[in-house]
Write a structure and sequence with these properties.
Strand order of the largest sheet: 1-2-3-7-6
Shape: elongated
Number of helices: 2
Number of strands: 11
Order of helices and strands: EEEEEEEHEEEEH
Structural class: alpha+beta
Low-confidence stretches: 1-7, 9-44
Strand content: 25-35%
Largest sheet: 5 strands, antiparallel
Radius of gyration: 18 Å
Number of domains: 1
Amino acid sequence: DIVNYNNTLYIASMNCAARPWGRAPLLGRRAEPSRRALKAFSSAAPGQAQRVAPPQYLHIHTSAETTISIPFTANGGKHLQSALSGLVQTFAEKQKAERPKRLDMMEWRCKGQEGSPTADLDLFEVVCNPNAHASAFEAKALISVRSKGGLKVSSEARLSTLQADVDTFIKSAA
């Protein structure tokens, strides 16, 4: 089920035991969706409640009014950051080249893993074709997010904005 709460779209979790916070923000206008840690029962100590911290979210600003928020890990953020750095390096080489040549597309994919904060994430993909843009400052990347429930969101974001969002996530995750 998709729930609209304060101009933020949520996909309602079907398995609240695995996700005690109940909702996973996917798309919204607010940069930081409201989340709170709820008490969940531990299998090790029946009847005892323990606090479960919600996952960290990567907020990708795709336009002035749209933000895609997905549960993400610091390790995944570092891998995405290195892929984006390699793409910027490709644009630098393109600027220095005397003759134009065909460059490879950057395709980066991440799949959710069971037992991690990204368990409800089926696919997170970032694609950018350096041949379609004159420089890294003009470049846009196609971002696709698909949940295990079948919801898919695709949008374009400026490469510089995407890099800033990933850098902010890594700093907050540290």
